[in-house]
Automatic annotation (TrEMBL):
Keywords, sorted A to Z: Acyltransferase, Glutathione biosynthesis, Hydrolase, Signal, Transferase, Zymogen
Protein source organism: Aliishimia ponticola
Signal peptide location: 1-18
Gene that specifies this protein: ggt
SUPFAM superfamilies: N-terminal nucleophile aminohydrolases (Ntn hydrolases) (SSF56235)
Catalyzed chemical reaction(s): glutathione + H2O = L-cysteinylglycine + L-glutamate; an N-terminal (5-L-glutamyl)-[peptide] + an alpha-amino acid = 5-L-glutamyl amino acid + an N-terminal L-alpha-aminoacyl-[peptide]; an S-substituted glutathione + H2O = an S-substituted L-cysteinylglycine + L-glutamate
Keyword Transit peptide on entry: no
Record protein name field: Glutathione hydrolase proenzyme
E.C. designation(s): 2.3.2.2, 3.4.19.13
């Protein structure tokens, strides 16, 4: 199978280029778990997804990556909770049943539409580099970049987790229900057990060698030395104990120096990781803060597409892609015309060129945010696409900026695993949150029932190129660049779509294409998230295996593109907001949408 051969190749050596590296480890394998026993409404939602129909509702809706988590969020919304309340329940259950993708040891970006004020804001809970980190963190003694998994597995790659602080912050700002009640669904499931899904079992089997490196991780995922089997009832009493501490004392049990046993355990796990210790300290945890930032919005047709700005590249790259395409009539061309995909592919390449040069944590480096989404600048970039063939090459543009721009191009890798949650509550609030521990199973280090992230490997392993600094280099306290693109689309100031996806750097074209499908091609949200993928970031046009996109390869190649056929395993979860609510869940994964 292509997935297994790719994983074996990735274990042998780090590929030479960012394109090759991103292709060396395929996204998580698609499996469809059997969750009908959870509730009748879950069974109906699974049937709707299988039939390609959106789930419709009038009052509220939640769409996420696992039916257990969606059910927990739906119960909170049904009890009168807000989208913020539901996010707490959904995330803590996801960290249990989908631990390879997100959890308390990771970070997240939230885009929030507040119905009372009509404002869109964002919360940055990205993991941060320890104060003891240096630009040479991922280099050997000769200054050469480490091989990818040599950097990932162990303590070196672990950044300060942001998810616990985010859950507490969003509940304090926008929650209504009691905090302990929101953690109870995950506690109950962790103590009573849940059936391991085929998807989780398959991922454990494929990663067994790395999961076996550390005793606590191996004991959980490889009991008696064998990978977890699908259908096995799995309990996690350590995770339940962690949530009970959070329920009584809040997120401080992760961050308070000398007071939080969980934080102390995180530091000890990182610093004592056999073979690859890290430099995370209790001071790093104590200093961590969730940062509220203004949303970054770009115009597309008569909509405003709003998302997370730096340190995420998501809103900028999605916004640039769509802003460039604003100059072309994709609605008339339609989804089956290769010219649509020529334009989409090269617009994406141009956005990725800017992303690779300019985007990093704005608390450390200046980023031309407004210049990058300025309509005049994007119209100039669009002029490059007025021919009939693929661009022979792309290079970063020169967006208007008040600072001198002298950065070398980045080559950081960003591989899946991640998860996305979209929620609309009965009060009109909208939440779009993408959450991650970076690579599948993160650093492979586990403590207190949850995995720790490997987020620091989203930094560039190099600090300079040809004497020119790289914006996304490692620096103490800095947050690595991300491709996560939680998005809320508005029309006339009102939200009409919440959407996002996992998928490493492919998140950006996944989200952009789904928005195009919904706005330009009139697809409902289930059709939009199920649309066959064609993704071009760095030159090669990836076409989704087993879909009609495969047949487009000859025409794209005649235009000058290099193509490749592969699994493109997104995890899009979307809610459209109009006369009613409609929810869509990516058929490539096991998630659903529920509403009332």
């Amino acid at each position: 199978m292509r997935f297994i051969s790719c994983v074996v190749a990735a274990l042998l050596a780090l590929p030479a280029t960012a394109q090759d590296a991103a292709d060396a480890v395929a996204p998580e394998a698609a499996t469809q778990g059997q969750f009908e026993a959870i509730s009748p409404e879950v069974g109906k939602a699974l049937s709707a997804k299988a039939a390609g129909r959106p789930v419709a509702a009038q009052e509220w809706m939640v769409a996420a990556a696992n039916p257990h988590a969606v059910q927990a969020g739906a119960d909170v919304l049904r009890a009168g909770g807000t989208a913020a309340d539901a996010l707490v329940a959904v995330q803590t259950v996801l960290g249990l049943v989908e631990p390879q993708s997100s959890g308390l040891g990771g970070g997240a970006f939230l885009v929030w539409y507040d119905a009372a004020s009509g404002n869109v804001t964002t919360l940055d809970a990205r993991e941060a580099a320890p104060l003891a980190a240096t630009p040479r963190l991922f280099q050997d003694e000769d200054g050469a970049p480490l091989k990818f998994f040599d950097a990932v597995v162990g303590g070196r790659s672990v950044g300060v987790p942001g998810t616990p602080a985010l859950l507490e912050t969003l509940h304090e700002k926008w929650g209504r229900l009691e905090w302990p009640s929101l953690l109870q669904p995950a506690i109950t499931l962790a103590e009573g057990g849940f059936a391991v899904s085929p998807r989780l079992a398959g991922l454990v089997e494929r990663d067994a060698d790395r999961l076996s490196r550390f005793a606590e991780t191996a004991a959980y995922f490889l009991p008696e030395g064998a990978p977890l089997q699908a259908g096995t009832t799995l309990t996690n009493p350590a995770y339940a104990a962690t949530l009970r501490k959070m329920a009584s004392d809040g997120a401080r049990v992760f961050y308070a120096r000398g007071e939080g046993a969980i934080g102390s355990d995180i530091v000890a796990t990182v610093q004592n990781a056999p073979g690859n210790p890290g430099v995370l300290s209790e001071w790093d945890l104590a200093l961590y803060q969730v940062i509220e930032r203004p949303a970054v919005c770009a115009s597309y047709r008569d909509h405003d597409v709003c998302g997370m700005g730096p340190p995420s590249s998501g809103a900028l790259a999605v916004g640039q892609t769509l802003g460039i395409l604003n100059q072309f009539d994709l609605a008339t061309l339609g989804p089956d015309d290769p010219q649509s995909w020529r334009l989409i592919g090269d617009a994406s390449r141009l956005a990725f060129a800017d992303r690779g040069r300019y985007v990093a944590d704005t608390d450390f480096v200046p980023v031309p945010v407004q210049g990058m989404v300025d309509p005049a600048y994007l119209a100039g970039r669009a002029a490059l696409l007025f021919g009939d063939g693929a661009l022979e090459s792309v290079s970063p543009g020169a967006p208007e900026f008040e600072h001198a721009l002298l950065w070398a191009d980045d080559e950081a890798l960003e591989l899946p695993s991640t998860s996305h949650i979209s929620i609309v509550d009965s009060f009109g609030n909208v939440a779009s949150m993408t959450t991650t521990i970076e690579n599948a199973f993160g650093s492979r280090l586990m403590t207190n029932g949850f995995l720790l992230n490997n987020e620091l490997t989203d930094f560039s392993f190099r600090s300079h190129r040809d004497g020119v600094p790289i914006a996304n280099r490692v620096e103490p306290g800095k947050r690595p660049r991300s491709s996560m693109a939680p998005t809320i689309v508005l029309r006339d100031g009102r939200p009409v779509l919440a959407i996002g996806s996992p998928g490493g750097s492919r998140i950006i074209p996944y989200v952009a294409s789904a928005i195009i499908a919904h706005i330009d091609w009139g697809m409902n949200v289930q059709q939009a998230v199920a649309l066959p993928h064609a993704v071009n970031r760095f030159g090669t046009y990836d076409l989704e295996e087993g879909t009609k996109m495969e047949a487009m390869a000859p025409e794209l190649e005649a235009m000058g593109f290099t193509t490749g056929v592969r699994d493109l395993n997104s995890g899009l979860h979307a809610i459209s907001i109009g006369a009613n609510l409609q929810g869509g869940a990516d058929p490539r994964r096991e998630g659903i949408a529920l509403g009332q």
